[in-house]
Write a structure and sequence with these properties.
Distance between the termini: 61 Å
Structural class: mainly alpha
Oligomer: single chain
CATH topology of the largest domain: hpI Integrase, Chain A
Number of helices: 13
Radius of gyration: 27 Å
Strand order of the largest sheet: 1-2-3
Helix content: 40-55%
Order of helices and strands: HHHHHHHHHHHEEEHH
Largest sheet: 3 strands, antiparallel
Strand content: under 5%
Length: 337
């Protein structure tokens, strides 16, 4: 029993050292160290054989005796020991199947050319393994892959996963599909751009860069007398209520605003992805006021124009500047934008 506990203690020490060298945050390292210390104490008093440590029965026994619900650190330790060849299979499952050559090539590509972090590579491998299994199970050839099959895979794969992790896994799959189209020429069209998550509307705590009283000061400082003031008011509403950046505000065209459905369409959002966002009523009114009383007649379809003839599309720096001047007039820190 002493030798078993001694070997486990050494394995835990090596695993924690690996976590530190791999860039895990201090809080996670401390949590893992605490949980694994309890697991070591449990093994020292209850387990006599190394082969009996990483079993589901032992894990269930450990959880009940210590009153622990989350066993992620123990599972992580088992995966680490499996890769080191110290145990035959990781905890709670079988050894992961080898990836098909095309999938394995992408992992090598990420490691060699993108220098992806080891934790990122583990997440990518998890997604690729599940995706390869889905394709084989449904007899789907990668060359005939369509967005319908991808949607079906994601619906099943992500059904019990937190939203933040879902976004991460969708990104991993998007990168693989982008690789298949641009680097390998396996796909006839780029399916990566078609993978989108559900829109998140009416968040209880929308992102903001000012406190509530400062936001009131900002909107109280808006004026609606001149063309410049109307343009500034519309830009401020879009920046705050939709979280748009100056470059995204400047890219909007007249055709992107749907007043009937109260929506705005972004052709190039973050990560160069199209998006469709709801327009709150105050933003609609501000845009309408600018179109009626502030926007000059011009053949350009861009929503925001310069104020001096010839009237051309405004530059992102112009929009950022007008928002900062509005903040300064309200007595706020303009560098917050």
């Amino acid at each position: 029993m002493g030798e078993t506990a001694l070997a486990l203690g050494k394995a835990i020490e090596q695993h924690l050292e690996w976590m530190a060298s791999s860039g895990y945050v201090q809080r996670t390292q401390k949590y893992y160290a605490s949980c694994l210390s309890q697991f070591l104490s449990f093994v020292r008093s209850s387990i006599h054989c190394w082969d009996d440590i990483f079993t589901l029965e032992t894990l269930d026994w450990f959880q009940k005796e210590k009153g622990i619900k989350r066993i992620g650190p123990v599972s992580s330790l088992s995966r680490y020991l499996y890769k080191q060849g110290k145990i035959p299979v990781p905890l709670g499952g079988q050894a992961p199947a080898a990836l098909p050559s095309l999938f394995a090539d992408y992992l090598l590509y990420r490691r060699k050319y993108h220098q992806s972090h080891v934790r990122a590579l583990q997440g990518i491998q998890r997604v690729l393994g599940a995706f390869a299994h889905y394709l084989a199970q449904n007899d789907i050839k990668i060359t005939s892959l369509g967005i319908e099959q991808i949607d079906a895979f994601l619906a099943d794969f992500l059904k019990n996963i937190a939203e933040g992790t879902r976004r991460l896994y969708r990104g991993h799959l998007r990168g693989f599909l982008n690789y298949l189209f641009h680097e390998r020429g396996v796909l006839s069209k780029d399916l990566a751009v078609l993978i989108t998550g559900p829109p998140l509307f009416e968040q209880s705590k929308p992102p903001k860069f000012l406190r509530a009283d400062e936001i009131e000061k900002l909107f109280a400082a808006l004026k609606y007398w001149t063309a410049g003031q109307l343009r500034t008011a519309a830009a401020v509403h879009l920046a705050y209520m939709l979280g748009l950046r100056p470059c995204e505000i400047c890219s909007l065209t007249l055709d992107d605003i749907n007043f009937g459905r109260a929506q705005v369409y972004l052709h190039h959002g973050k990560n160069n992805r199209p998006d469709q966002l709801p327009l709150p009523e105050p933003a609609i009114k501000a845009i309408a006021a600018y179109l009626v009383g502030g926007r000059a007649q011009s053949p350009h379809r861009k929503l925001f124009l310069t104020l001096q003839p010839p009237y051309r599309p405004a530059h992102p720096g112009t929009i950022a500047g007008c928002i900062q001047r509005c903040m300064q007039s309200a007595g706020l820190n303009a560098s917050a934008y």
